[in-house]
Amino acid sequence: MSSTPETDVLVLGGAGVDTIVYVPELPLPLADSHLIRPGIQTRAGQTGDFVALGLSALGLRTHHLDVLGDDPEGDLVRALHRDRGIPLTAVPLAAGTKRAVNLVGPDGRRLSLYDATRCGESDRLPEDTVTALASASRHVHVSITQPCALALPALRRTGVTLSTDLHDWDGENPYHEAFALAADVVFVSATALDDPERTLRDIAARGRATEVVAMAGADGAYLLADGELTHVPAVAPPAPVVDSNGAGDAFAAGYLFGRLTGEPPRRCALYGTVAGAHACTVPSTRTDAIDRATLLARAAGPTADPATH
């Protein structure tokens, strides 16, 4: 690994395009048709894009690596990174750019439909590219999108610390497990976990993680660090909640910002809850992330846990 890294965080995977559909309620009532307002919009931004945007907005030097198609969706992703000044290394993908449809209810909940045809078993991120970019970085955040799992051995050989977000893992799916056991910092949604503490401790016991976080939305988060489980209270959103899309990605970006600026895990988790709460106030059709000054001000505010000061 370079003694003077050029990049703070390399984000691996998770580049794509979402079509946002606001629906009257979830589950969507069965009907021949629905009138949709404020309309249907397609924009660049999936999990890796949002993490990269969040990190960059917080002032960290960020580079994004993923597969992209030579198609209009890929052009949207390239334009997003160009407009936000985030370096992007795009490996050509014959099947086309990853895409999804997000159904968003009035309360901000969402249902995502991912196109599973966009990456095949033979697709790869070139190992020399992965190694070169990771070795020039202080940290690597790995999305669970294909073909990132195949890059994990090369990433580990670089010696760079890794993080990953398992999203709504149930604690058993072996695909997610490979990421969970390879990363030094693991994020997971508590949504599908019957016993979050058991899952966090299992990840720490069997893998490399020194910090494991279960994100629980309005209930805050659960942090396992140094063998101690801590509940991190939620932070009140600064505006009405309109959309939960991207909240987990924002949490990860806020947490990693804290970690890379030398903060202890409990403080990092506070940053994550602040960033996640902010994301819930941003409509899916936008790709805005909290900036460093706002994050630090809100983390120091009266709603923050005094134990983290």
UniProtKB/TrEMBL annotation:
<dbReference type="GO" id="GO:0016301">
    <property type="term" value="F:kinase activity"/>
</dbReference>
<keyword id="KW-0418">Kinase</keyword>
<protein>
    <submittedName>
        <fullName>Sugar kinase</fullName>
    </submittedName>
</protein>
<feature type="domain" description="Carbohydrate kinase PfkB">
    <location>
        <begin position="8"/>
        <end position="288"/>
    </location>
</feature>
<dbReference type="InterPro" id="IPR029056">
    <property type="entry name" value="Ribokinase-like"/>
</dbReference>
<dbReference type="InterPro" id="IPR002173">
    <property type="entry name" value="Carboh/pur_kinase_PfkB_CS"/>
</dbReference>
<keyword id="KW-0808">Transferase</keyword>
<dbReference type="InterPro" id="IPR011611">
    <property type="entry name" value="PfkB_dom"/>
</dbReference>
<dbReference type="Pfam" id="PF00294">
    <property type="entry name" value="PfkB"/>
</dbReference>
